[in-house]
């Protein structure tokens, strides 16, 4: 455990200082007019998206591309598990999970567990990143060692879940999504 009493002198004060600075930024006054203008512009941009012309095959192709990117990031992180590669993998996993949320209605019983596993994976990769940042700021060798052990455990878990989440080749993933949709349309 990385409880508060084990924090090295100075680490806690730096973390509190960083937290307070982040809170101060969040508490800064908001320019409401600029915010309304930005949201209106975004609304217009979204309204112009050519979704009416998109068919299911277009969506599956695009989702297959993001799945392939997540799978590549997994394989890179597996070969060389640096903080940067694990963080990059997390970004791709989160994007893939968002796509699974959109696809879930075609067969919720099948896709919900996959989406949930991906979401948990993203959280654990986020924990790993947080621990890496903490380790960089820690002065105490014992704390750094405890963090290294926890990160090693997290990586074992992440790579096991990631292996299952990314088991299919992208073409197989796309084929599977199309097949789920076909079976669902036929009343399955």
Describe the structure.
The protein is an all-alpha fold. Helices cover 79% and strands 0% of the residues. Helix 3 (56-79) runs antiparallel to helix 7 (170-185). The radius of gyration is 21 Å and the shape is flat. The model is unreliable at 1-7 (pLDDT under 50).
Short synopsis of the structure:
The chain has 188 residues and is an all-alpha fold. The chain is 79% helix and 0% strand. It is built from 7 helices and no strands.
Question: Secondary-structure map with pairings?
Answer:
Elements: H1 11-26, H2 32-47, H3 56-79, H4 83-103, H5 108-137, H6 141-165, H7 170-185
Radius of gyration over C-alpha positions, nearest whole angstrom: 21 Å
Low-pLDDT parts are: 1-7
Distance linking N and C termini: 47 Å
Q: Give the mean pLDDT.
A: 84
Helix content: over 70%
Pattern of helices and strands: HHHHHHH
Structural class category: mainly alpha
Overall strand count: 0
Strand fraction: under 5%
- What is the number of helices? 7
The geometry reads as flat
Q: What about the largest sheet?
A: none
Labels describing this entry:
single chain; 188 residues; mainly alpha; 7 helices; 0% strand
């Amino acid at each position: 455990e990385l409880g508060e009493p084990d924090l090295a002198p100075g680490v806690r004060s730096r973390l509190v200082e960083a937290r307070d600075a982040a809170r101060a930024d969040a508490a800064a006054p908001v320019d409401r007019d600029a915010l309304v203008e930005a949201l209106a512009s975004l609304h217009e941009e979204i309204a112009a998206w050519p979704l009416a012309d998109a068919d299911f095959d277009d969506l599956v192709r695009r989702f297959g591309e993001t799945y392939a990117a997540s799978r590549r990031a997994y394989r890179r992180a597996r070969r060389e598990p640096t903080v940067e590669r694990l963080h990059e993998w997390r970004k791709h996993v989160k994007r893939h999970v968002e796509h699974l949320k959109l696809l879930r209605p075609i067969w919720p019983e099948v896709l919900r567990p996959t989406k949930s596993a991906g979401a948990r994976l993203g959280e654990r990769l986020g924990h790993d990143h947080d621990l890496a940042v903490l380790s960089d700021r820690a002065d105490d060798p014992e704390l750094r060692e405890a963090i290294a052990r926890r990160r090693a455990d997290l990586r074992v878990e992440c790579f096991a879940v990631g292996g299952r989440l990314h088991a299919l080749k992208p073409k197989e993933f796309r084929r599977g999504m199309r097949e789920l949709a076909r079976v669902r349309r036929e009343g399955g």
